């Protein structure tokens, strides 16, 4: 081993230093442990010797004190003081006799050993012996010194051997590996710079070499992944720029739309119905540009005719002067809903808009959007935007713009109309309220009244029955296994069945001046006035027979092959405690009994017979 092979700041020197330090610590620990054991052994030996000598001397001293032979006591004490580890011997008699012998006054004399002196069971004094622990420690140290020298020599030799082994097995290969890594070039990551001899080693150096070799492969993979990531980032950046551009366009569009609406609002504030057409013409080009339409028109309604009032551009050819809306049912429903109508492509129109689709295709219109001019009760015009060549690219912002534009025109027209047609509006409001009341109390499917007016009519019958002591009749009708019918034939066919049954109920009930209502789902209710209440059972049989004559097929009816009904009812003379809810509940209970009885049957509780 030469000086050049040793780097006192390197791992080799550190390992040697650690080994030397650990060896020295081990030697020191072993020496201290041996000294401690020697000390404990010396203490135990001295203690045993003193206990043995003190026991023997105690019998002699006890007898000498008993016979008052003080000279014998002194000789005995002198003999005990000859022990090397004893500092002081002291005999104290309970009669005041005291004899002591001092060998040393060292501060280490701190271990007392006391023996009680007694003769014939009588305690006559004590024998105290004080040990010198320092002397015990010195003897232990003297015995451990050669062992410490042996341990320190072993530590030094082990350090020299470890230093050589580390240099041979670790330092040289690591230096070789370091030199190889110093020659590594990042632009040649696909080439290995680790010597094969190091890679093939089976120890930790070989593991490190193989790890470095694997790291070069990962560097190459990471480099390729970095290139891929950079490419993806560029793609994301391009996408983000496109989104920013689209968002900027949308914001610019909204800004232009808001500015145009503000100008329209200011212009229309001072406008009246005589100048409104000209004012609208001025803003139509800007509105068409924002909405992306080839043409934009304003139509006014006259009954089911739409007359063109103004349009843009002036050379438009596919927008007629007059449009007949009488057969365009979808548009009429749309006008009733007063919502935006957007048809991006005429091919998207359903079967309920055949007339509209035919008309648009005849005119060569590909896309159309419209919003009605309305006063809140009915529509009196509409704004339309149309394209012939490209489908609409439409969104909620364009719908909102078209709606606000139509609202601005409507407000001007309403403001003018309000002050010349107040009485007409009031009359129409009354009519509308009546219509709403009828709609609220009428079932949409069967056109029968619903639960609320029926209960009101039943309450009138109860009041009349109490007043004149006449009977009241209530009947509940339920279609048997109607859910199974819907599952088999569909809800549209089920609605047709309910409509036919409702027609039979209405026709038969009118013969008895009664009232029929749809209570919900497949359930109906009938009440007869007091003068016909007793004929409730006849009415129930007639209804059941009429429905049977229809012979409406019902393959999923476990009780037959046709649609049947179950009927439950009650005939009673009301009193002050009778309520409409009570009678309906009683009739409903009879209906459930009819269903439990096998369905397709009648169960009328006639309390007149009981009375």
Automatic annotation (TrEMBL):
Kindly indicate whether the keyword Transmembrane helix belongs to this entry: yes
Instruction: State the reactions this protein catalyses.
Output: 2 GTP = 3',3'-c-di-GMP + 2 diphosphate
UniProt-recorded Gene Ontology molecular function terms = diguanylate cyclase activity
Q: Which InterPro entries match?
A: Diguanylate_Cyclase, GAF-like_dom_sf, GGDEF_dom, HAMP_dom, Nucleotide_cyclase, Rev_trsase/Diguanyl_cyclase
Q: Which domain of life is it from?
A: Bacteria
Q: Which stretches are transmembrane?
A: 147-166
Q: What is this protein called?
A: diguanylate cyclase
